[in-house]
Sequence to fold (263 residues):
Amino acid sequence: MPKSTEYEAKTPDERGFIAYTADEDAVWHDLITRQLPAVGEHMAQPYLRGLQLLDMPVDRVPQCPDISARLGALTGWQVEPVPALIGFGKFFGMLADRTFPAASFIRKRKHFDYIEEPDIFHEIFGHTPLLTDPAFAAFSQAIGQAGTRCDKADYSWLIRLYWFSIEFGLTREEGRLKALGSGLASSVTELPWSLSEGPEHRPFDVIDILRTPYRIDIHQPVYFVIDDLSDLFAAAKRDLLADIREARGLGLHAPKYPPRDAA
Fold:
């Protein structure tokens, strides 16, 4: 997350709805219509099924109460606008409570291709489709529950498991590499990059993931491939705090990316 931003949160009314402008609705329309063909080609079936179930509007920014109503009926989750950038502690607590925190603003035209901080396009189009699936929803809740039990010093270790699976995970379907993560679904450039021969593709391994540093402002140099999704769901039943202790003892891998000031 950037420490500062030119974006301001939008305040929902008493029913939870936000008054987006016609220009903001147009940005949503242009973002989703541009991304849908790539998503249909490159995203994995769990994401595509969820997208179909949610049946998001194309001509306007979706409203959190409408998405929450559909999620609630499917998995008991809801989406809640957050007033600002939130810390890991708040994030984990909301996941544990089956609530996904959604930034309420949508990017400006000048940030159409890339925005560092998550906006509502990333949050709703990227994240909520997987939350329609009970197994993925349970995995996200398990990450949140682990976060409510671990020390603050462990937050940066635990979030890597979420980052390299729910945000930027890959999988295989009928032998073909497919994107699974929400960050990939909402990125016009990183989605094809993640599946190309450019980055390193590693097998899914919890300890390896916990030891792998990342940067949020570049395309990832490393992605983890979940060949069998049951391996991801099994991770929700692991003692993740013990996994963090093991990863800490082994230490971080050397970064595969340049320092931020050298990028």
